[in-house]
Amino acid sequence: MSPLAFVAALFATSLAAGTAGAVLGLGGGMLLIPVLTLFFGVDLRLAMGASIVSVIATSCGAAAAYLRSSLCNVRIGLFLSLATVSGALVGATLAGVVPTRWLQILLGLALGYSVLTTLRQLHIEIPEANDTDPLALRFGLEGTYYDAFLDREVKYRAERVRAGFGAMFGAGLLSGLLGIGSGAFKVLAMDHFMRLPMKVSTATSNFMIGITSAATAGVYFGRGDIHAMLAAPVAVGVLAGAAVGTRLVARLRNSTVRKAFLPVLIYLAASMLLHGTGVLR
Amino acid sequence: MRTSLPVERVVGRVLLWGGLASLMLILIGLIGYVIEGSPRVQEVVRSAHAPGRGPALDAYTTLAQLRHALARHPPDALAVAALGLMCLLATPLAGVAVAIAAFWRHGDNTYAAIATAILAMLLVSVALAATG
User: Fold this and answer.
1) How much is the pTM?
2) Do A69 and B59 touch (CB under 8 A)?
3) Residue B129 to residues A209, A215, A226, B61, B87: CA-CA distances in angstroms?
């Protein structure tokens, strides 16, 4: 492959990763790393370095737009980041001490269950409000956004805050233990446990993934794993893709975003179970 | 359409301008690299296709290396792109730092404390990773 074709293909892949990441609240590593390593033959180290750049670029590009349109909730994002960052710190400390295979199997089963519950609520546009959680009132975990598809303002308030916070701590713990990104788990915790509108969940996840990844990005840079020639086209492509993704989200139903998220959950559940049981290494 | 809240607005601005400034530096670096017509492009593609051969070619791993490459006349084009990447990586942390000030200014001490705790934990994890 010629250098120009290499850079062009890299840009196109990153554009797709940025668009998907902005819509689904993920960093894009799930798409970028396999494509870079399997199709472009890039060293895994450099692919992971490019992936961390992609996570932060998606977060900056998407969160800036979502914050302007009030889809992203800074208070919910920071409140839950407290759980994920502390979880990641504990996880990184316990890495090598805790047997990760059982954790992967447990996580795979939990994700498998989430697939079933997601299927049950696939068509729910805005979750019905149940009992008010005092913690949601105490920490102001509520907001309003204008839904262009529904052509009205949507008010929401977090529910089951303790469960959501616990799930976020677990997501951070696993991210620290297994060295995996946790964008999908963040979306899941906000959508399932806290019953936030799906678009608010993915938009707020976009804000959070940038914060949690910034800590590890410095390590990758210091190791020389972030090469400008590889990471720069990725950053440009992902930023452009994030701009496309944020415009797309405004026109989508919450239920459509949830449907698009379902294959990610199935992939993650299968991947965790296959790695945990030793079928995949 | 509903306008965003003051804290959201200020954090959003930091992420937007941080992202745009990084993008500009990255593009200037990449365009400069292409204009230089450097044969190293071929080398970079080759190195990216050769797994496990030590640090990547032309990778800047310390601020000192980057400063040295930027101080040249003209500055090294890849170093300009690397500076853009570094700005991009620092942008979310700048967003949290600005959120602390914004919450403080609006009298929301709870969230100013939460954001401070997050920033402190992130800096601790960076320091732990840097010291191995």
Assistant:
1) 0.86
2) no
3) 19, 9, 16, 14, 19
